[in-house]
Amino acid sequence: MKYLYTLILILSAQVSGMAQVTGAAPAGEAGLFDAARGGNPMLNLVMMDLRVRDQKKGVEEILGSPYLTEDFIKSKVYFGEEFMGDYYVRYNALNSEIEIKETDLPEENPKRLLANQDLRVKYGKRELLFTTYINKKDQTKNGYLSIISKGDKFTLYHRLAVKYSEGKAAANSMVNAIPSRYAHFVEYYYLKDGVDRIDQLLQKKGALLKILDKELKDDVSKFLKLEKIDLDKEEDLIKTFEYINSLNTTS
After folding, report:
1. Are 182 and 65 within 8 A, CB to CB?
2. What is the DSSP string of the chain?
3. CA–CA distances in Å: residue 242 to residues 34, 198, 199
């Protein structure tokens, strides 16, 4: 058994709101799931909420999915540097929630992880980190990001986002109804060394150069042209930030 410190198996009691960064929870020598079995009425309420919402699926046909993958993927869960174990995880990108099970058995009801900035989940090829970030509308949000490039000057993050679009009934028999759908898209964020905030990266040359220190702008501008960088491509974004972090600014 491992000490959990502050990790327990709940999220916010809000049904669709963004989870808040939480403080300490009861500590003790228990497994990850044992921490959520103490008979706390609020814990039971939150877990029930997830099951009720799942039961409502299928009432209306909706194209796409709020999940990165519909299947639960065996993943490693950490709290800080402490390894909590291997669990079956599914990421709800629409609500920025991590659903978790002890097994991959279909009869086991999933639970939700308490959002906490010390939480790390190695999910598929990436590691999900719960953090606070600023989007392009200058709105402060809480959610899961993945580091895709890290250096002395900048850290680059990937965020899978999902948008839900309400469908429309057919106006008449000559046109088809438009079904509701979930649309997946990707956003990128950056953390600049010495700046205590994570901001959304606008994937345009002018916007990129604007966030750089003066002594870096010319070198990066030449790099973008010489390497024919397409900032809409993730591999080119990573290549660009690796180059930026490699530049020597001491002279």
Report:
1. yes
2. --B-TT--S---S-SSSPPPP-------B--TTGGG-S--HHHHHHHHHHHHHHHTTTSS-EES-SBS-SS-EEEEEEETTEEEEEEEEEEETTTTEEEEESS--TTSPPEEPPP-TTEEEEETTEEEEEEEEE-TTS-EEEEEEEEEEE-SSEEEEEEEEEEEE--B--SSTTS--B-EEEEEEEEEEEEETT---EEEPP-SHHHHHHTS-HHHHHHHHHHHHHTT--TTSHHHHHHHHHHHHH-----
3. 42, 18, 18
Nearest to 111 by CA among 4, 33, 39: 33
In a domain, 158, yes or no: no
Q: Would you say residue 80 lies in a domain? A: no
Tens-place pLDDT, residues 34-48: 544 444 443 333 343
Task: Tell me the per-residue pLDDT of 48-88, one tens digit each, with 9 for 90 and over.
Answer: 345 445 444 444 678 889 998 899 999 999 988 889 899 99
Total domains, the chain: 1
Is 231 part of a structural domain of the chain? yes
Whole-model pTM: value is 0.76
Determine the Cα–Cα distance for residues 91 and 245; give it in Å rounded to an integer: 31
The answer to whether the beta carbons of residues 207 and 218 sit under 8 Å apart is no
Range of the domain at 212: 203-251
Provide the sign of the torsion angle of the four alpha carbons 215, 216, 218, 219, taken in this order.
Answer: positive
Q: Is position 213 within any domain? A: yes
